[in-house]
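pasting for ref
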Amino acid sequence: MAKSLMIVDDSATMRKIIMRTVRMSGLEFDRTEEAGNGKEALDKLQGDPVDIVLCDINMPEMSGSEMVKEARKLDCCKETKIVMVSTESGQDMIDGLMADGANGYITKPFTPEKFQEKLTPLMN
């Protein structure tokens, strides 16, 4: 089954790095989207939902943690898998994000193998 992916990060360079690393992992998506912050991501998701979102935490306008909370309130995002990708690695923060509705967490620096490990179970 074809899957879709959105990468949410305020750095265009980081979005490209994440996309390249996802491709190197061997995972395939038929459609990919990008957003520069949580607000832009929510606007796009309401118009055209995706299966999996890879989202940074620290962004202007709307942080990744705020985006997770808001996405979980939307009918279009109830089934969307949201995986946080960040340099933040505090267990309390990760636990809070998971409680708010995130489906996983990948710390930077990341590897293709880490994306494969974390995303493969979410693609079924």
